[in-house]
Specification:
By secondary structure, the chain is an alpha+beta fold. The protein is built from 9 helices and 17 strands.
């Protein structure tokens, strides 16, 4: 059957500044490969992305690697104590230099053993002494911009002239420091993540509202007092916060005496989230990283208080891994399938500017940032 609706599928009702009057992004903004390519330069290559925990870069030579789309980078601590970031590619024949995280006195390419100092300068190139006119200064590693954030995290940006993350989101850093229980004592514990068969924006949309929590996450809606749930937006980030509802929830047990009695969620443009659930002190940093128009991957790190294992910690971890996570994955993958339907165009936001649990005004905030970045 032929369909003569190309013009129709590319129309777009405006994203009104008032979320109560605004349409959502259209379905094609989540499925069109051309939009995904525009996001590459318009969003991902000029925004701040999470690189890793600052404590994993404590000593000279310590490094972490990270990736956004096909661009691999690493951040390393120099002998002078400075953090620097570089594209993770040898200047000889383009082999990747480092993997994972660890420590290296010298950055040595596994392919032909060209080596680099932690400041990016070429150290040795075997056989280059026999190459006429070989200039070591012409083969330094290409830098990326790096910043420490909130005293605990490291971010990078491929755009060297990008505005400072701390200038853009310093108020978020202050909230993390003041609202997360035992924040300064939290230490890196482990990494985890996995794939989701949906556009990265679908995963962010789902993260940014709890309108779906009652129907789709009954255990979470029972855990958190939904009447206390509030959403706020500020600059390039937003927050969702709710107080503990019923202690000793069977699916996610929390005692009334546990130190953390709130659910706290922060999103930072474009892909980073900070997450705290009621129970023992701890937090996670999760990123929803794009891979293809219909595929993204979560990459996250968990932080705990050293030596503090509450009796219910294991049950809570299992709930997140085996219940809450799969519920969200199934929702996102169903939405992705629906966005490709010829029966869908654009939706409307449900907005409560007082920030109750049913509001979607943080999703609206996200959509407007996307539309601005892509000139939609």
């Amino acid at each position: 059957m032929a369909h003569d609706n190309v013009a129709q599928t590319r129309t777009m009702q405006p994203l009104d500044p008032d979320p109560s009057r605004s349409y959502t992004l259209p379905g094609w903004a989540y499925t069109d490969p051309a939009i995904f390519e525009r996001e590459r330069e318009g969003i991902f290559f000029k925004s701040w992305h999470y690189a890793g925990a600052l404590e994993n870069l404590a000593k000279a030579g310590d490094y972490v690697t990270a990736q956004i789309l096909d661009q691999s980078v690493f951040v390393i601590r120099g002998k002078d104590g400075k953090l620097r970031g570089f594209y993770n590619v040898c200047q000889h024949r383009a082999h990747e230099l480092l993997a994972g995280r660890g420590s290296a006195k010298v950055i040595t390419c596994p392919y032909h053993a060209w080596s680099y100092h932690a400041d990016g300068k070429l150290r040795t190139a075997r056989g280059s002494e026999n190459v006429d006119g070989f200039d070591k200064n012409a083969f330094c590693l290409k830098p990326v911009k790096v910043e420490e954030f909130a005293g605990k995290f490291v971010f990078y940006n491929l755009e060297l002239d990008a505005p400072s993350l701390n200038e853009q989101a310093g108020d978020l850093a202050e909230e993390l420091r003041t609202e997360v229980v035992a924040y300064d004592e939290l230490r890196f514990a482990y990494e985890r993540g996995g794939p989701i068969r949906c556009n990265w924006k679908v995963a962010i949309d789902n993260y940014l509202e709890c309108y779906h929590c009652g129907p789709a996450h009954p255990a979470f809606a029972d855990l958190v007092d939904m009447k206390s749930y509030r959403t706020g937006i500020s600059g390039i980030w937003s927050s969702q916060k709710g107080k503990l509802g019923r202690p000793n929830n069977n699916a996610y047990p929390v005692a009334a005496t546990d130190a953390e009695q709130e659910a706290l969620f922060w999103w930072l443009w474009p892909t980073t989230t900070f997450n705290v659930l009621p129970g023992s002190p701890g937090m996670s940093v999760f990123n929803f990283l794009p891979e293809a128009p219909d595929r993204c991957v979560t990459v996250g790190e968990r932080f705990y208080l050293p030596g503090r294992n509450a009796p219910n910690d294991e049950a809570r971890v299992e709930y997140g891994r085996n219940v809450l996570g799969p519920e969200d994955t199934a929702l996102c993958e169903s939405v992705q399938r629906g966005l490709g339907s010829e029966g869908y165009g654009q939706g409307r936001f449900i907005a409560d500017l007082n920030g109750s649990e049913i509001t979607e005004h943080a999703v609206h905030h996200f959509h407007r940032l996307v539309a601005e970045a892509l000139a939609l």
